[in-house]
Amino acid sequence: MALEYVGEILLPRLFAASVQSTLLVAVVWALCRLLPRLPATARCWLWWLVALQLVVGVLWASPLALPLLSAAPETQTLFVPSQPLAATIATNAAAVPPSFPQASSLPSALVPLASAWSWPLALSVLWLLGLGLMITRTLLGYLATRRLLRESVPCRDAALIQALNLAAEAHGLRTAPRLRLSHAIGSPQLIGPWSPVLMLPAHRLPSLDADELDMALTHELTHLQRGDLWWGLLPALAQHLFFFHPLAHLAAREYAFAREAACDAAVLAGNPHCAGDYGRLLLRLGVATRPSGGLASASPTFLMLKRRLLMLQRSASPLRTSALALTIAVAIFGVVPYRLTAQAAQPVAPAADSAPAAFPVPVPVPVPMEIPIVMTASQAMAAPGIVPAPPAAHAPPAAPPAPSIAAAAVPAAPSAPAPPLVSKGSWMHSDGDYAHVLIDGDTTHTVGNSDDLRAAKSQQRNGEALLWVRKDGNTYVVRDMATLRRLQAAYAPVAKLGEEQGRLGAKQGELGAEQGELGTQQGQLGALQGELSVQLAAAVMRSVNTGSDAAKAEVSAVERRLAALGDQQEQLGREQQALGDKQQELGRQQQALGEKQHLAGEAAQREADRLIEAAIANGLAQRVTKKDVSPTFGFQFLP
């Protein structure tokens, strides 16, 4: 089950999000490259949005459809009355494809192999293995961080603790992080989003003067003030889910760099003339690996350290409003998942000219397993003036076979509208420990399952109205008429909307019957066209062989009859189209009523819950015991 979920749902989402992230990464990278004075905070958010787009792409079940692809032309086997006869017969004779083997001729041993293993299954296994390796790596980093904490010691320097408290208060923090010293680290590290701990390198503290220590503390407290350890969990999650995607790792790396640069900018904002001193401090702290996602420390690589030093030489752009607007625009247009779809195809009927109708011989379409390709009446309606093709005949048959054409098939009746929510009542399925059934004559309103409905009817006496409730393991019956009247009034709008839906359904059924009758007429005309096509083929061959005027006159007469049948088919197609438009309008009305009924049902449900609570509290609800249950229904409720 897990592999099926990964192969059928997760993998397509992962692929779609990977493709969309490519465009988003290109946009963000171009913005950061073309706008060198863009604030580091804006850069940080832009790269964070890339990680958000990846995660949202996995969780979002229904991407927005963008109809940007060109519509594929519809290929149908059509009967075009204006097509020249000689060209049609010659084209068909030259284009007959070779026959294809049927499915039964394939080796049966190949079927289990194809069903036992597939590419989606293999990719699902590989993805789960890669995700497991990423989780294992993260757990090892977490354990290494916990080991560092265990080996560290609390700071006993009162002056340092006081300086940390003052700095935390200046940054607007309610409490300062715990301060610990460690000999195993070379730079300050802020660990853990839940209970943050600031670890300082014990062997470097004596060499740091007051200004350097103040800048180091300011940098780490800025991380805490910005909530970087919390926000950083999302890029880490994107890296785990998209471990195969290089751009996911690029986004996480660029986010980490921009996050450090933003904290560096905050330090320099409070000490604008100490850029040189701060750069020397970064060099002294050097490079430190980052073993866990919930940790902020020095630069993890020499390249990132170099980039941070270069960023110190640049002044951020004062246009913070523009940077905010740019970030919001990227969030709106780049994060939401999109799906490219084809534009709606517009069927175009070939223009009929004044040439006499000719016998068309359609080119057979090769299809595996020899599935017949037919054109339904609904497809014929989509292209007025075009009627389905008759069966191919390469030579005059000895006896006209029964035509096997699409037009002879009665068109499928329009899909029946979804049954209304209320038909002499309403029904809402529930398998939980709560259910209720309101019985009022032959109308029932049920929130539960079929067993609940049977249990409620077992408590009915001589067709009386009652409310049956199952709640918290107990069963109750309410026969108080005042409560029942209020509950009936709550369900009245739902029942009324259900009646309106029933009337619309009846109209849709009448229209469906009319469409069925038209389809029958179209099928009969199609059968006649098939018979005339066979006659026409035989007359054409006699005219070619003998060249007599009688044969030519017979060809002309049959062509005129086929043209007349084609006009009748076109008229029936227009009538079918009009009925289809009416069906669509009724369907829209049904949908609107369904939405209204859903809202009315929710309101009725809330009122029913309130009345049931009041009835139980006021003693109007009688508890049903085991002896009160009718044994004919095969179940019981224990007190």
From TrEMBL:
Signal peptide: none annotated. It holds the Pfam family Peptidase_M56. Residues 595-604 have a biased composition (Basic and acidic residues). Keywords: Membrane, Transmembrane, Transmembrane helix. Residues 14-312 form the Peptidase M56 domain. Residues 569-604 are annotated as: Disordered. It comes from Pseudoxanthomonas wuyuanensis. This is Signal transducer regulating beta-lactamase production, contains metallopeptidase domain. Coiled coil: none annotated. The chain crosses the membrane at residues 14-32, 44-66, 117-140, 317-338.
